[in-house]
Amino acid sequence: MTSSATSSPGPGRGSRRAAPVGHAAMRSANLSLLLRHLHTRGGRSRATLAQETGLSKASVTSLVSDLAELGLVQEGQVERRGTVGRPGTEVRISPLHVAGIGLELNVDYLAVCLRDLAGEVRFTSSVPMPYVLDATVADGRAYPPGLVLDRVAQQLAESLEVASREGLWVAGVTIAPPGPIDYEGGSVRVAANLGWTDVPLGEELAARLGPEHPALSLENDAKLSALAEAPRLARRGITDLVYLTGDMGVGAGILAEGRLIRGWSGFSGEVGHIGLDPAGVRCRCGRRGCWETMVGFDTVLAVLDEDDPARSGRLPMLDRLEHLRVLLEAGDPRLHERFTLLVDDLVRGIGVLVDVLNPQAIVLGGYFGYFADLLVGRVQSALDARLLAADGRVEVSGSALGLDAAAIGGAAAALERVLEDPLLAPPLSADASA
Amino acid sequence: MTSSATSSPGPGRGSRRAAPVGHAAMRSANLSLLLRHLHTRGGRSRATLAQETGLSKASVTSLVSDLAELGLVQEGQVERRGTVGRPGTEVRISPLHVAGIGLELNVDYLAVCLRDLAGEVRFTSSVPMPYVLDATVADGRAYPPGLVLDRVAQQLAESLEVASREGLWVAGVTIAPPGPIDYEGGSVRVAANLGWTDVPLGEELAARLGPEHPALSLENDAKLSALAEAPRLARRGITDLVYLTGDMGVGAGILAEGRLIRGWSGFSGEVGHIGLDPAGVRCRCGRRGCWETMVGFDTVLAVLDEDDPARSGRLPMLDRLEHLRVLLEAGDPRLHERFTLLVDDLVRGIGVLVDVLNPQAIVLGGYFGYFADLLVGRVQSALDARLLAADGRVEVSGSALGLDAAAIGGAAAALERVLEDPLLAPPLSADASA
């Protein structure tokens, strides 16, 4: 069990490389450079690769051949060019041999995602937690870890089976647990909504998956969601962003210059408890005016009748959201008033994040993302109005990935291992499904 | 004029290197690796260098010889070893040939710092702004840019002269201006306290310094101060920190994994205007409850008599602080009450930064740092009490560099250019003072 999916070895100030460059390291670094380039920019000819990366054509040819033997790239269709001359062959990331798995374990659902190196989702499944366990558990909000982990292991085993059947080697599995992570121990400290304390997730899952399982890592859902959204924004040159999760709690995943800002012990982005009003509502953390008390999903539910189906923790999250949507479209005045206040309070907290981090984009996830049509425009206008400098403008959008963001990000984080060190992938001559 | 002292070329997500590794790049990267290692860890033998960096002994010998020819390292005293055998010779950073200059241009003072590559401050001078210009300007708080820039250029010319006299090649000059920077244009947008708008600092100084001047960059004072404090903390393994400036305004310099977090347009750390109380005092920015209205230097001055010398903008900052110190030591009840409230309000804002960034250390600068003895212990206790997880503990300290922090950081930022690319330094055979 590695302690984190995405932590880098933590180089000292300014020292961007942890290791010296010898000939072997140079080859490995250039393999990684080429693979990342293809991964980010898409398929292109060897000549284009040489031109864009600054590597010699001979080097590109030799490196591409290595990457192909590792099953990481493949030859593609003839590249269309406007000029005369011999048409080039396109090299692109291969979807055939390498994949990563992400799994979000949430109080509402288990979502798993198997994604190949080319970015294609090859298998996904989502199970509403209440449905998983209602048969066996009396109190639907306090799930015994053993039962949940059995189900998680089953869902992982299904994904691994799909991978094996399709000849995909799985580079790793990243799990987003429903509470703060003990990165050292690979456990979840507390999952208040599940009634859990110090559950050794990594160890328990490793035991259930057997000795042959891929590397398992834990990472926070907001951080993984930020990683999942990153490629969409990176294509437009945006590498500084904050992803906001919106559920009972609120969390943030922060990318700066394309790098995940984890904080020194992995607890960056705990924005649900930033104090924005000393005279505000008392939070379950004991303090007053935490952002969560203003924008958490509970604040929406609180305006509904006690027996409203949206308030039922027994229903899957998506059903509850759809029910709210129906009420909103029917013009429910309590909800419309709530959403007006929500915009103001979202802007207050996002304003703090903008002042501290100066991101180029804010991505609204969770229930904020589900109601992006109601929130994005209004939040954007209010942020524009509070702006100090024109080039500090931040762009607000809804998550494109919905409730699967963390699982997709988990798969991406697992694939990072191969992008960083392509030589991890087993050569094609070996058993690709090992 | 380069647009920023410290921005990296902005690699895409995960792509940590911008360039491929060829043999020339490999040599340059390894020169940088060795030089940084010596810079961070101090002098050591070739054998120790090989062992610690993973480079072969032959490579180390050859690279050290290159660095010596560039005047970047020198042979030192015999290294004491507990074992028998031939005593090694120590290689260490040379203080003789390469330096950087930092200059802080502030409403209160101009401070300049010439620092050699070995970290020694070779020349420093600080001039209280009121003294600079009182003779020529009627209204002491609205200084014409031309006059100020003449004085800045004069101070820079003095430092360059010292450098030239001592045979130091100046790698660059970094200037911390008194307001938000237009990084593209190398200008200061607004310096409210000086009555400035859109002053093209870089261009104006370049013109005054003549064609032979070193590379000029602008960077924010809080960011430079964070860079200046970083080595002290890095020696204890701390690479995630927030430096807080305390003056009329409040700003933050953020380092994550040793890297400066600048934000996408350079405006990270604008923490003076984070809104912490919707019912709070109206800020000069127009909003209510900005952190600055609670902890800015004005809040301290406001409790004093109108004619108290500490309130006089005509006095140098240090004199005003010393006067406050005398009042505090005499038991002034208004100031003691103010400092009690200040601790609470500092903790509220720092709490937000801790939740968002999860730094390992908070460094108090400016007037917070000057009164570190009164603030650090109490802020630390209050932060410890609000902690959610034990390993999220953040350590509070006062800046060790006082009001010179930004100038020292500016010199360090200028020297970064050589640490990143040692081949920038002119070989010793050439004129070292060019």
Automatic annotation (TrEMBL), chains A, B:
<dbReference type="GO" id="GO:0003700">
    <property type="term" value="F:DNA-binding transcription factor activity"/>
</dbReference>
<comment type="similarity">
    <text>Belongs to the ROK (NagC/XylR) family.</text>
</comment>
<feature type="domain" description="HTH marR-type">
    <location>
        <begin position="33"/>
        <end position="77"/>
    </location>
</feature>
<feature type="region of interest" description="Disordered">
    <location>
        <begin position="1"/>
        <end position="21"/>
    </location>
</feature>
<dbReference type="InterPro" id="IPR036388">
    <property type="entry name" value="WH-like_DNA-bd_sf"/>
</dbReference>
<dbReference type="InterPro" id="IPR000835">
    <property type="entry name" value="HTH_MarR-typ"/>
</dbReference>
<dbReference type="Pfam" id="PF00480">
    <property type="entry name" value="ROK"/>
</dbReference>
<dbReference type="InterPro" id="IPR043129">
    <property type="entry name" value="ATPase_NBD"/>
</dbReference>
<protein>
    <submittedName>
        <fullName>Transcriptional regulator</fullName>
    </submittedName>
</protein>
<dbReference type="Pfam" id="PF12802">
    <property type="entry name" value="MarR_2"/>
</dbReference>
<dbReference type="InterPro" id="IPR036390">
    <property type="entry name" value="WH_DNA-bd_sf"/>
</dbReference>
<dbReference type="InterPro" id="IPR000600">
    <property type="entry name" value="ROK"/>
</dbReference>
